Amino acid sequence: MFMVMFVLDDVLFADDILNSWSEIGITGATIFESSGLHRRLKKIIPMRYAFDNGTSEEKGNLTFFVMVETEKMVKACLDAIEKIVGDLNQPNTGIFSAWPLSIIKGIPPLEQKDR
């Protein structure tokens, strides 16, 4: 299993990303509002629950966490994101990372979900 973390710069893409992940088989994700050091230092603190479709002047990020079973699925998550927001090496798109998990409890393996 792997943990995927994605920090989305433009919250307007959130639903598109979740829909694309759903299409590739992601069945759950944790999402929370976040802010980085740059915004904090500029005193641009995001409003709570920034699911406002971009109507507020203050902008935050959304951070997504999702667990996937294979490295192939990690790459599928990344590909789905970049089809929506563009190349993550470009500024103001987002930050993606993934790492292997050694202990997981509370989530049944994929083969048990199919039963």
Record the strand order, biggest sheet.
Answer: 2-3-1-4
CATH architecture designation:
2-Layer Sandwich
- Shape, please? globular
Largest sheet: 4 strands, antiparallel
How many strand units?
A: 4
CATH fold node name: Alpha-Beta Plaits
Number of domains as seen in the coordinates: 1
Instruction: Give the overall average pLDDT.
Output: 84
Helix segment tally: 4
Spans with pLDDT under 50 lasting ≥5 residues? none
Describe the structure.
30% of the residues lie in helices and 23% in strands. By secondary structure, the protein is an alpha+beta fold. It has one domain: Alpha-Beta Plaits (2-Layer Sandwich). It has a four-stranded antiparallel β-sheet with strand order 2-3-1-4, covered by helices on one side. The longest helix has 15 residues. The mean pLDDT is 84.
Highlighted features:
Alpha-Beta Plaits, single chain, alpha+beta, 30% helix, four-stranded antiparallel β-sheet, 115 residues, 4 helices, globular
Describe the structure in brief.
This protein is of the alpha+beta class and 115 residues long. Helix content is 30%, strand content 23%.
